[in-house]
Amino acid sequence: MRLSQYFLPILKENPREAEIVSHRLMLRAGMIRQQGQGSFSWLPLGKRVLEKVNTIIREEQNRAGALEILMPTIQSAELWRESGRYDAYGKEMLRIRDRQDREMLYGPTNEEMVTEIFRSYVKSYKDLPLNLYHIQWKFRDEVRPRFGVMRSREFLMKDAYSFDLDYEGAKAAYYRMFVSYLRTFTRVGMKAIPMRADTGPIGGDLSHEFIILAETGESQVYCDKAYLDLPVPGADTDFTDDAAIAGIVEQWTTPYAATDEMHDEDAWGQVEAGKQLAARGIEVGHIFHFGEKYSKPMGAKVQGPDGKEHFVSMGSYGIGPSRLVAGIIEASHDENGIVWPEEVAPFHVALINMKTGDAACDAACDKLYGELEAAGREVLYDDTDSRAGGKFATADLIGLPWQVIVGPRGLAANEVEIKNRKTGERRTVPLDNVVAALGASA
User: Fold this and answer.
1) SS3 391
2) Which of 65, 210, 232, 331 pairs with 192 at a CA distance of 20 to 30 A?
């Protein structure tokens, strides 16, 4: 993509309304535009990142056996009355009436709707296990939306819902999602640590928040440094092997890890002093088993192998892709701007023409642009007539992993400069070796 043909509304000054790093950088880098309190438009650069995050989430949900659907944003109040949540949910729910004066709501979550879908079609244990997910916009009328897309009123959510005959089946489904989440966050370039979360009235231990460490994180967290070196399951993970999956979960839940709300000083004291890590963190995912909380009041039951009807045991599994984008920025930035992990960067390469209009520079950049695109590298080619300093500042701000800098002086020796955005390392390579150099560095 040529920058001269792209919509990238860069802000030179820090917006006064931005309280945290991700909000400030997303506004400055032209990723989002605030439309109202807790409401944002995603502009081209931000939308590219959001879709890359969604793609990774989809691939890992599918790999773990979940099936994608898409449910409406507007839901019937009657469904929520069946579960008993309509009046109990609170003012965060946006309640509306249609022209027939029917009570409706803008969905803050989808447990009721997915349970209604399940009970309409699934009648036998032979059709289990089942896990349905979607990626859809939600709305919660937060009393104080803040921190940009980190805590907004309208947000994108991947929510999955599992259905099983009994608790043992539900636990296996929970474990599959647990491992899927480990892989998902690793693939977006983050190290996520699963921390035991409150299960409320359900009880048990099947509730975990996935936390990424960041100095600007909203939560105080405590964990054993062993988590920093635990191996993340690979792409060859067999999600049909319940025993192997359970073994991975055991490995990832044995060391101590807790948010401030669940922190246990006695257990913390048993962690070797040199292995204790107290830090700030950001929640980017939450998985939760809630058993028959919805299936019982809504009549979602199946015939079991014993010939009797059983209310299905359910779980829910959430990742907020829009929140995750902000979380990645909070964990990966410097004083000059965003530092995107390669997997979710809006483009792989910033191709910078130091002297647009110079025949040699234009020709070299056109050549590289075509070669890089042909090699599968997504390129944002700065072909504008801006000053070199401004081009460098823009490239650093938007945080593309690689910068290829083409100028008259280097071309005189048939060379260009390559900069690694994360490390700041610069090196000079022959013009004809740029594609190979980036390929080896990817």
Assistant:
1) helix
2) 65
Interval 113-153: pLDDT, tens:
999 999 999 999 999 999 999 999 999 998 888 889 998 99
Phi-psi region of 209 (alpha: psi -120 to 50; beta: other; left: phi over 0): beta
- Which alpha helices (DSSP H) does 230-306 contain, by range? 242-253, 265-269, 295-298
Q: Count CB neighbours of 31 within 10 A.
A: 30
Angle at 266 between CA 265 and CA 271, to 5 degrees: 90
> CA nearest 135: which of 32, 41, 46, 54?
54
Q: How far is CA 89 from CA 74, 85, 158, in A?
A: 16, 6, 20
State the Cα angle at 90 between 87 and 93, rounded to 5°: 95
Pull the structure tokens for residue 230.
Answer: 């635990």
Q: Which of 151, 173, 153 is nearest to 312 (CA)?
A: 173
What's the number of CA atoms in the CB half-sphere (13 Å) around residue 430? 3
What does the block give as tokens for 14? 């820090």
358: exposed, middle or buried (C-beta count within 10 Å: 0-12, 13-18, 19+)? middle
Give Cα separations from 188 to 52, 210, 389, 414 (angstroms). 9, 14, 30, 36
User: pLDDT (tens digit, 9 = 90+) per residue, 201-227?
Assistant: 555 579 999 999 988 888 899 999 999
Question: How many other C-beta atoms are found inside a 10 Å radius of the C-beta of residue 220?
Answer: 14
Instruction: Give the angle 20-23-24 at the CA atoms, nearest 5°.
Output: 80
Which residue type occupies 321? Answer: P
Its pTM stands at: 0.95
Partner residues linked to 222 by β-bridges:
258, 278
**Contact status, residue 24 vs residue 403, Cβ threshold 8 Å:** no
CB neighbourhood size of 46 (10 A): 22
Distances (CA, A) of 172 to 132, 175, 244, 249, 373: 15, 5, 11, 10, 43
